[in-house]
Design goal:
about 100 residues, globular, two-stranded parallel ribbon, single chain, mainly alpha
Length: about 100
């Protein structure tokens, strides 16, 4: 649905049990052309996601986010924090660094 802004994700704030979040707006791996553009907003969603990855014991391990956010400064900073969290938990590692 293109009318989702992300405000409804507020109940997930600080969750330690959620493992996957998919906000990609894709269906069956097809990338639709949205007109008008989807309303889902970094402004609303990223603080909620930050509260999840900052929690000790967070089980979040998979995110699929809107491709329209690529290049947004806040989004890029969030991805850096998310990847650091995964590396610190040992969920991902660099193959080149481990050889």
């Amino acid at each position: 649905c293109i009318n989702i802004t992300g405000v409804g994700l507020e109940p997930l704030r600080g969750s330690t049990t959620i493992e996957q979040i998919d906000l990609s707006l894709f269906y069956d791996r097809k990338h639709p052309d949205f007109c008008p553009a989807p309303l889902i907003s970094c402004e609303f969603v990223l603080p909620i996601l930050d509260s999840i990855i900052e929690r000790e014991g967070s089980l979040l391990r998979h995110l699929h986010l809107p491709s329209e956010w690529k290049g947004d400064f806040q989004f890029d900073q969030f991805l850096r924090r998310y990847n650091e969290m995964l590396v610190n938990r040992g969920v991902i590692s660099c193959v080149k660094c481990n050889t």
